[in-house]
Amino acid sequence: MRALIRALPDIGRLIARLVADPSLPRAVKIALAAAAVYLLSPFDLIPDFIPIVGYLDDALLAAVVVDGVLNYVDRGIVVRYWPGTPQSLDRVARVARLLAAWVPRRLKRRIFAAR
Fold this sequence. Notes:
7 helices
């Protein structure tokens, strides 16, 4: 969980770079842009000023985004835009996969599948 929270700035950069990529489907870009707005917004389901718990909704959303991107976007594109090393992406991906398991696969597929 800490690895994912520490990686939030890198995930934000990844999202911004992916949204600008012309090869990604529009539906994926919209989902990524919505996630970026939520992560940057001071208004959350659980306010960030609540210690520890306040970042859980951000971490869960980041996990769903990372897991979805890695499952539905070509890995080469993701590695090209990831600001860290491929090994750091793999660490974040493992944590994201564990947290994103709480979200129904059908919902993730609906968000990230190209239309």
